[in-house]
Amino acid sequence: MNKVMTTKEAVAKHVNDGDFLFIGGYICRPPFAVIHELIRQNKRKLTITRSNAADDFDMMIGAGIVDRFIGTFLSLGLYGLARCFRRAVEKEIPHRIDVEEYTNLSLPMMLLAGSFGMPFIPVKDMAGSDILSVKSFMGDDKFKVIDSPFDGTPTVVVPALNPDVAVIHVQQADESGNAQIWGIGGDCKVGANAAKKVIVSCERVVSRDTIGKDPSRTIVPDFKVAAVVEEPFGAHPGYAPGFYDVDFGFGSLYQQASETVEGFRRFLDEWVLDREDRNAYVAHYIERFGYDAFKKLTAKFDYGYPVSYAF
Amino acid sequence: MPFELNSELQYRETVREKTLFGGSGTMHEHPDDYIKPELMACCGAREISDGNVVIVGTGFPTMSANIAKHTHAPNAMLMQESGVYDARPERPALSVGDPCLNPGAAMIGGLVDVMGMFLQAGWVDVGFLSGSQVDRFGNINTTVIGPYGNPKSRLPGSGGANPIGSLAKRVLIIALHDSRRLADRVDFITTPGYIDGPGAREKWGLPAGTGPAVIITNKAIMRFDSETKEAYLHSYHPGSSVEEIEALTPWSLNVSDDVHETEPPRRDELRVVREILDPFGMIRIYESRGYV
Prior knowledge:
The structure holds two protein chains of two kinds.
Chain A: H1 7-14, E1 20-23, H2 32-40, E2 46-49, H3 55-62, E3 66-71, H4 83-91, E4 98-101, H5 106-116, E5 120-123, E6 144-147, E7 154-159, E8 165-173, E9 179-180, H6 188-194, E10 197-205, H7 208-213, E11 218-220, E12 225-230, H8 248-257, H9 261-273, H10 278-289, H11 291-296
Parallel strand pairs in A: 1-2, 1-8, 2-3, 3-4, 8-10, 10-12
Antiparallel strand pairs in A: 5-7, 6-7, 8-9, 9-11
Helix pairs in contact in A: 3-4, 5-6
Chain B: H1 5-19, H2 36-46, E1 53-55, H3 60-70, E2 77-80, E3 84-85, E4 107-108, H4 111-120, E5 126-130, E6 133-135, E7 140-141, E8 144-145, E9 153-154, H5 161-167, E10 170-175, E11 182-183, H6 200-203, E12 212-217, E13 220-224, E14 231-236, H7 242-248, E15 254-261, H8 267-277, H9 285-288
């Protein structure tokens, strides 16, 4: 079944106000093209989750489309603290967000449980920390401490997460949605498979035959996928292995812009709201920084051996 | 011909060659032109034993683990929480998700693989952590300064710190030595050290034989008393003194009976830093962050 559509169509059709979204990425493959469209369509009251969130989450919070964040970490990495996140938590600008705190072990495990159809999962971390002494919108359902039914030892259990929609960016997918990645995975596979449906954004749409040449790379099967959108350069300023590098200069630009509310709004206008789609974004990038700068991000070719599945 | 195995092999050879320099008679000399972040990175390296499985973040942890790997611990194995095992980056990684960690790694999975199958399952020997606040029991705060509900400053949160601090067998903590970064009691325990003292980790069910081993600051090395679980002064860095460190530490700091000066970086350690790991001197950025 051909599920290829524009990002505009995919977001309009498959994301509702108030939805709970898993947004994949780990500097590697953040689905920025779709995130910008969520902001352009002004989706409201979203709950968003992923482990180790970065500039994409900060931007969604600053744009005011997020009410709740199930998170572990949010920073601009190299560029320091996430400014919009700080303003939202410290000063309720643009509005208050509620944060449920987990860790880079417990949150992926909750998504794993969700992807496995399990109700909850035991984890060995968080015990003895204040992460267990603060609860937000999940209340007493944030975690429970039970005696293990097997040996009686106290055990922290956390609930499964099943987001309404997962948004991921991958290197390639076929038109029905079989999605393939290579390189750092973060919690992308478990997050996508825990969701009720998946929007797959990809660098390139390939044939079913191409998928079949290396099927071990597929992280989500097509039957879970609602929409496929082709967005080359769609993870920028993050990177996609084999396609393009992290844009450190742009990261710094965002950090400086987001220092102030005004700067952030101007950045949002320039790179998101005044751009109709990703093509317009790329065109603006080239116009602003030159084709050489754009080209410089392109990955070198360094193929490994091709794999063979023959018998 | 698109399949260029040669470049990969050449890279391996270069690294291998560079690791073989260590045999000269001058390797144990202590050059005096080092900067404090280099000393701290070397202190971290010396905490790693050969064969250790080490989970690293960027900056000091990567630097320390690689110094160890290129000197006394060639079989130390490194992983990043993002899902990478045994990366062979061509330049220093700027984050645990850095593109340079991908090509050449022995395995790439995701968080469930590294944090679940490796760390939670008990395979990780050494973890490195740093924090905006570290207290005398080695608890670390990376969540908020001030009250949680009304923070003076919202920090990033746990990320991988809590599970690493909970589950790695030895935790090495990097901190700035001043009365703001060190605390009698952190505002928020993001990552448990010895929590509130002896028996606390056991009471909470954290695995036996885990916990912080050392706090490496820009002034000193502090270790943890096996009875009281409190950090005490083990050694002071060249240029500092017991008195200075006592004055900079916001709790009444116990001092080891055999307190001594920290061994400065050796020539072989510095060569690894400057010639292999960080040829552009990116470690100097830590000086501007106060590590002097």
